[in-house]
Design brief:
With 206 residues, this protein is α/β, with parallel strands linked by helices. It is built from seven helices and seven strands, in the order βαββαβαββαβααα. α1 runs antiparallel to α7.
C-alpha cells in the first residue's frame, strides 16, 4: 500500500536552534530550508509515497518547497510538533480514511529513496517507527492502514512509540536514521553524502 506523509516545519529562521554556528548566522535560515529541500526531494522520488503534506508554521516562508511536488498547509493554531502531525493526518484521512499515514522529520538531507522504501516494506502495514542513529529519537512513524498515527515525538520518542505499541524497524536504513540537530550531525550526514541543496548551503564561505 502507498503511504501519505506528513512533514512539519518551523519558520526557517526559528528552526534547528542547536545547529546555529554551523554556518554564518545570516545563512542559518537557508541551511534549514536546504535540509528540508533535500529531504523532500528524496521523499517524492520514493515509489511508494503517494502524497506529501508539509505542515508549515509560515507557508510563505517555505513556499519554494512546493516546486518539489509537496502540498503546503499552515500548522494548527495551538502549534507543537505532535499537533502538526495530527493536523496533517486529519487532512489526509479526510480524503482517504483507509490510508497509511506517516510522520517524517524534515531534517534528513542524506536521505535515499531506497531507505524510505525499505522502511515502508518492512513495516508491512503495521504501526512502526524508525529510531534515529542514537536510538532515542524517531525519524519516521507509520500508521497501520486506516488506524491512528498516534505521534509521540519529543525527548525519548523512540521509547514512547515502542511503549505505545509501534514496531521498531530493524533494517540498517542509515540515511533515514541520520537527522540533523547539531554540527556533529551535520558532519555525519555530509560524510554519508547530502543532497545538492545542503551541499550548496554548507559551501557558503564563513
Amino acid at each position: 500500500m502507498d503511504v501519505d506523509l506528513v512533514v512539519p516545519m518551523k519558520h526557517p529562521r526559528d528552526g534547528k536552534s542547536r545547529l546555529r554556528g554551523a554556518v554564518e548566522p545570516d545563512h542559518h535560515p537557508a541551511l534549514v530550508l536546504a535540509l528540508a529541500a533535500d529531504t523532500l526531494a528524496a521523499v517524492v522520488s520514493a515509489g511508494q509515497v503517494r502524497r506529501v503534506l508539509l505542515v508549515a508554521a509560515d507557508p510563505r516562508a517555505v513556499a519554494e518547497l512546493a516546486e518539489l511536488g509537496v502540498e503546503i498547509i499552515p500548522e494548527p493554531p495551538q502549534g507543537g510538533l505532535n499537533e502538526a502531525f495530527r493536523h496533517g493526518e486529519a487532512r489526509l484521512r479526510a480524503d482517504d480514511p483507509a490510508a497509511v499515514v506517516g510522520a517524517l522529520q524534515a531534517d534528513l538531507p542524506a536521505l535515499r529513496a531506497g531507505d524510505l522504501t525499505a522502511a515502508i516494506a518492512e513495516s508491512a502495514n503495521r504501526r512502526a517507527f524508525v529510531a534515529d542513529r542514537q536510538g532515542t529519537g524517531t525519524t519516521l512513524l507509520l500508521s497501520a492502514p486506516g488506524a491512528p498515527l498516534d505521534p509521540r515525538f519529543g525527548v525519548g520518542s523512540a521509547e514512547a512509540h515502542r511503549r505505545s505499541g509501534a514496531v521498531a524497524l530493524q533494517a540498517a536504513l542509515a540515511t533515514l536514521r541520520s537527522d540533523v540537530d547539531t554540527p556533529d550531525d551535520l558532519a555525519h550526514v555530509r560524510a554519508l553524502g547530502v543532497g545538492k541543496h545542503t551541499a550548496e548551503a554548507c559551501a557558503v564561505p564563513r
